[in-house]
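The pair is quoted verbatim as follows:
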Amino acid sequence: MNRKTLVLPAVIGLLTPVLAACGATDSAGDSGDAIVVGTTDRFTASKDAPAPVDPAYAYDVGTWNILRQTVQTLLVQPRGDGEPEPEAASSCSFTDSGNERYACTLRSGLKFTDGSPVTAEDVKFSIDRARSLKADSGVFALLSTIDLVETKGDSEVIFHLNSPDATLPYKLSTPVAGIVNPADYDKGRLRDGFAVDGSGPYTLDAEVENNELVRAVFTKNPHYKGQLDPKNDKVELRSFTGADAMGTALKDGDIDLMTRTMTPEQITELSDSTDSDIDVVESAGLEIRYLAFNTDAAPVESTAVRRAMAGVIDRGELVAKVYGSQAEPLYSLVPAGITGHSNSFFDKYGDPDVTKAKSTLEAAGVTTPVKLTLHYTTDHYGSATKKEFELLKKQLDGSGLFDVTIKGTPWSTFRPAEQEGEYAVYGMGWFPDFPDADNYLAPFLDKDNFLGSPYDNREIRSKLIPESRRAADRLTASESLTGIQDIVADDVPIIPLWQGKQYVAARDDVTGTEYALNAASTLQLWELGRGRGN
């Protein structure tokens, strides 16, 4: 057959693919074989992070993709764009006009994988546990607007908020709000290792070598009750050390599908091929990449240094030479396609301008060249990251204003060091917890932020973020959201670089690939099945 590239529309309308995937039937599990999915995500239990898949700790796209298959939430994000829909709940809604009281009623007959019933008290236990443990990953901050969780009987859960938060339904659809079995999770400590016990569509069997998860087998949960409809009986997730090995496994038929992170070269090769039994699904992406700063560290404690960097970096060249058509320049923390997006950095700095950047440094009395070390992770965002940072170094050095060293570190070391404030400048990526502008701003700028950043702007934290959350209609929040983005462009605690598209490559007998990733980059393994190849 001729390989087809399936292009899904941007954010709005993701539910309707432009071209149907190969494989016309939905014969889930007919062969009895597991659908094997490859990923370059690494899952490591270490001294710094002994509980990587505990919902109260996990806070990256890889571990969340494990939890979304196994731990049920009150609501779930839909296949494409749209508001969260009831999952463990049969219904949820705000019960006041001020978005400060939110009530959910559980579905009847919910059970954990051991067969014990799921009750409202289990929901309260799970969410209170995450809030009280306050894991250093910062994931608990997603629940920061919850003041009190109340239960009524076995099926009603009521959330009383400390401030209005129209985004709460989205937050309750994320794994930090996942319902766990109190019999297996201690309220006072994280659960070490890779065991997961919930009430989601699958159970998990983890194969671990040297404290690293190398294979995760998801088996359809016979006790599951919810709105999801698994199209298979078993899916196996294999972790590869690199994209090349993963790509070889797909071509050889050892795996059926691969997703993050493919290299730009792999995507181009597969997309350009005219004779292959592998399909590529391309969809609009909400992933972003950015440079972050420890604003207390020399020499970037100087706002002038950060502004000069923002004025010199050429995003267009960065995208063109490293990622090609697979990414777009980004001029704000909020990506294009999300309500409230603005091009604040372009509005302030325009095209790269060395003369203007030099004047900024001279006016602040900064001696040039400014010596910097840019840190990046070697194994978390794909192999192209090194090339990206080599080009950033070339741009900054080429201005004559900076003298840059770059240093790559494995994620298991990089992330703890970043959290401890050891890096002055470092590269990070972000896959949204939910597709709303709030989730591209608050996790980086609010109290208890994901980065552990010392940057603290009172207008953002005390006025603009709370103000934006009052608006149930997100269009009406745009003024507050734009205000936040303008302040970030002025203070530069972060420099946005680019936003990327998302891709899945699969053998042509795998169905449901157009729904394998939703708008928030959630891996939806329950959508995958087997059918006839074209």
Observations:
- The radius of gyration is 23 Å.
